[in-house]
Design brief:
By secondary structure, the chain is α+β, with helices and mostly antiparallel strands. The protein has five helices and seven strands, in the order H-H-E-H-E-E-H-E-E-H-E-E. The chain has a single domain, classed as Heat Shock Protein 90 (2-Layer Sandwich), CATH 3.30.565. It is an enzyme of class 2 (transferase).
Length: 223
């Protein structure tokens, strides 16, 4: 995991707060469009894994390959269900929701890439809509780390932490990869910026030789 004393890099992320209701509404519309695009990309990943699984040299036990593929398809289904649009105001368990999310991310995205996932989620409760938006942010950060953080997969690890301090939530995604050298860009950056504003959160990041660590801070007033 990244050394907390590693060189800070404020340019890894840009912090944003909600400006007004109209801005938040526009942000959420953008987030929905981009999130659907992201889900299409995960299905592309699934298709690529099918090709790898059934065309790799030396495959002998077809039933084992089919079983692995079936488990991954089920995990993608769980991930999609958790990330589906849900503005329900009911209160749900943070621990149960995000442990399920981390399990689905691990099985659908990380394990096939040779990356180990660790999760530490404190107990608490939040409205379902806030859990959903935090889940979209964490999924984007985890996927980005899986794609760009590792020059090789030996010992690769991503750790997800969620802690509740004085009513606010601090959600961290940390990897032990090569360390980010430039800000998040493109559709992923727009998703994160829009979601952060929609829940009045801000992000901070640091990077160094020990990897990259990005934390989402959602104040108590948003919870």
């Amino acid at each position: 995991m990244p050394d907390l004393s590693s060189r800070p890099n404020d340019k890894v992320v840009r912090s944003h707060f909600a400006a007004n209701h109209d801005d938040a509404s526009r942000d959420w519309e953008l987030v929905l469009r981009e999130s659907h695009h992201r889900m299409k990309n995960t299905l592309t990943l699934l298709g690529a894994s099918v090709r790898r699984e059934f065309t790799r040299p030396g495959i002998r036990d077809m039933s084992v390959a089919v079983d692995r593929l079936e488990r991954r398809i089920v995990a993608f289904g769980r991930l999609y269900q958790l990330l589906s649009d849900n503005d329900d105001m009911s209160t749900i368990s943070v621990e149960a929701f995000f442990e399920s999310l981390c399990g689905a991310l691990s099985e659908a995205v990380l394990e096939p890439a040779g990356i180990r996932c660790e999760a530490s989620i404190e107990s608490g409760s939040l409205p379902a809509w806030q859990c959903h938006r935090l889940a979209l942010m964490l999924t984007e950060l985890v996927t980005n780390a899986a794609k760009h953080a590792f020059s090789n997969k030996n010992g690769a690890q991503i750790r997800i932490e969620m802690v509740n301090r004085e009513g606010g939530w601090f959600c961290t995604v940390a990897d032990n990869g090569i360390g980010a050298t430039r800000p998040l860009q493109g559709a992923g950056s727009r998703i994160l910026e829009g979601l952060a504003r929609s829940i009045q959160a801000r992000m901070c990041g640091e990077a160094g030789r020990g990897g990259t660590r990005i934390t989402i801070m959602m104040p108590a007033s948003a919870a």
